Amino acid sequence: FSGPIGSQLRNCEKLPVVKFQIIDCEIPDIDSKILSKDQQYLLDVSLAIKSGTCTIDFAIREPGPISHSRWLTTANRVLRLYMSVESPSEEHLILVQFILKSYMPVWFKIKKSKYLTDGPKHVFNLIKSSRFLPENLIKVVDPVIERNAFFAHPENLLLSMIVDERAHIRELGLRRIIKSRTVASNKKLVRTFKPPKLNFQANEYYEIIDWTTTAISPPP
């Protein structure tokens, strides 16, 4: 890592904690017993920034090894560095806000609810939680979400819909499966499973695709 932020991450836990600005965020309730050491750190550092308090013991805790392949520990270090900078740059502040308002809450929701049928809801939560970003960063984030949104595939959405707690959504999902089976029975080609085009203005998880323009195939 390099640059004004990245170059400070490696030894951030050795820096003294200053009076940092509180940032409000949603922190899901989660049982600490299911968390690893690094995961617990993310929870604790998020709570510290939300409350504006940091104990001496926590200030010297190890945030986890720095690595390009370990986003969790990198996020830990970005947050820990924030607690040691009196006047964070705009770029640093945006990173911290994204971690606290989007990455962290979605991460813990996935940790709590890792069933196949929860996948579309996690994609939806990621979309909704990242809408606070300025337009120039939305244009960076959205393509990344879209090309990785395999859980937004109609097959996965339909699986989620038929176990929805709302009866009318379950019925809608079943009707779409029956209709898609009729269409699929006339096709002999191998289906291509790829992420669909997303609707980033969706208000519900089952609205994250346009059902009228997306090719629908029934779950296997």
UniProtKB/TrEMBL annotation:
This is Uncharacterized protein. It comes from Clastoptera arizonana (Arizona spittle bug). PANTHER family: HTH PSQ-TYPE DOMAIN-CONTAINING PROTEIN (PTHR46409:SF1).
